[in-house]
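Re: weekly structure request thread

Next one in the queue (211 aa):
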Amino acid sequence: MIFDEVFTSTVESLLTGKFICPITCATSYDFLNSDINRERVQSYLYQTGKTLSHIDHEFYYASYESMTPDRRRASRAVFKQTQQEIRPVVEFLSLMMRVSNDERSLYTGDEIHLAQIVSKIENDKSLLKSLDRIIIQIKGQLKGSVFDKTKQLINSLVKTDILKQIEPKIDIYLCTGKLAYYINLMEFIMTYQAEKFDDIDLDEPAQDDLI
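Done, posted below.
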């Protein structure tokens, strides 16, 4: 019974476009790390025209098994929406590297401490300008203290499932597999260039995995 419940919740999450990783849903993630369970989920998804995708088993998501005209149009719509979401993510990653003075990118499971970020930004005008630029992108206006603006940025990333708050009253957040997906997608865009998307053959496996 428990097995069937996990299977059902896992499939439902995948079909609604969610990314499954050890942060967003540890139960489903562990479930998919079993070869037998993956095959069962894959078999079910195949009946819906989708396939189970992953990148180094860091996270799992459902993508189209093959492209039809309707699916191609749907993929383009998702791609355009994702393009709008990516820029603040890029700015956030850049800001975090400067805050931590570390060129290493964030990975699934990395912790984000709000108080530490605020403390660094309050003492660096350059970081504050970068934060303001991101806030304008996502909110359209600047309002509040450094803490308020940083919290707005973090909340926007929580809302899009890029970060997950550990506890409601604790301002510590974990990076999810969706951030790793966006990083891979950014590499995809840099390789093929977004303006040439109409010319990309979405049936190619390397590209299809990200759509």
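The longest helix spans residues 69-100. The CA atoms of residues 92 and 134 lie 8 Å apart.
Next request, please.
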